[in-house]
């Protein structure tokens, strides 16, 4: 089975949790329960105890301003290496994951990526582990896996995933992705039972993701490939080329 490399997206500003979360200290670096452990640290600690899966050192993507916060928090849980990717410009998910995928491919082209948000609070860790185990069986078969969350109310602040045909257990093909809907649509989605919230978590083979990216978004593929080829290691940080 492929080695699993966690890719943690830690570049958000945490605006939804203002004023507790601030631009200089967004929510992924806060502890919002009684544990004293930040959401970023919890994101990585949740991966311990996965049965039969070799979890490699994570790649954490953040902006320049928060680099020392990330380094300090990774050091605090014993997961600091040269593994913090400094995003030169805040962009959407695809370029950030592409940077991580190119870097992962340099180390282990046969690896698997698990893309995670740094600001999720997940209390049912055993269910999370079970979902990862299930996802890995599909990803190992060259499927691109996205994790959905069963909606609890008509939320207009999240994207949605419409389920397609049933595959097995709680796994479905994706029919379509829907951007943040108006309230009327969100109510319809909830009532239909055919939609999940888009968690922003994904799993796929590194090589498969890059293959699909090259086919469907060749500009992002080539730009991020060039950025990584000119990247520099600076202490615990990976600085990718900014001018491409």
UniProtKB/TrEMBL annotation:
One of its GO terms (molecular function) is mannose-1-phosphate guanylyltransferase (GTP) activity. Coiled coil: none annotated. SUPFAM superfamilies: Nucleotide-diphospho-sugar transferases. Pfam families: NTP_transferase. Residues 6-240 form the Nucleotidyl transferase domain. GO terms for biological process: GDP-mannose biosynthetic process. It comes from the Bacteria. InterPro entries: GMPP_N, Mannose-6P_isomerase_type2, NTP_transferase_dom, Nucleotide-diphossugar_trans. This is Nucleotidyl transferase domain-containing protein.
């Amino acid at each position: 089975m492929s080695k699993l490399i966690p890719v943690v997206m830690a570049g958000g500003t945490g605006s939804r949790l203002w004023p507790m979360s601030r631009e200089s200290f967004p929510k992924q670096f806060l502890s919002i329960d009684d544990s004293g452990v930040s959401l970023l640290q919890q994101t990585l600690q949740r991966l311990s105890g996965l049965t039969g899966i070799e979890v490699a050192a994570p790649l954490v993507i953040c902006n320049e301003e928060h680099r020392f916060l990330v380094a300090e928090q990774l050091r605090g849980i014993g997961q600091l290496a040269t593994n913090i990717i400094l995003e030169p410009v805040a962009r959407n998910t695809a370029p950030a994951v592409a940077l991580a995928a190119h870097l992962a491919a340099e180390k282990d082209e046969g690896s698997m990526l698990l893309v995670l948000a740094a600001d999720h609070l997940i209390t049912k860790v055993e269910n999370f582990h079970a979902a990862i185990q299930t996802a890995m069986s599909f990803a190992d078969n060259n499927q691109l896996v996205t994790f959905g969350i069963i909606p609890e109310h008509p939320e207009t602040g999240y994207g949605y995933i419409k389920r397609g045909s049933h595959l097995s257990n709680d796994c479905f093909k994706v029919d379509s992705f829907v951007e943040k809907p108006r309230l009327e649509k969100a109510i319809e989605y909830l009532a239909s039972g055919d939609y999940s919230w888009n968690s922003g978590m994904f799993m796929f083979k590194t090589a498969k993701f890059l293959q699909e990216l090259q086919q469907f978004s060749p500009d992002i593929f080539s730009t991020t490939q060039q950025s990584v080829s000119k990247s520099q290691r600076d202490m615990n940080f990976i600085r990718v080329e900014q001018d491409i």
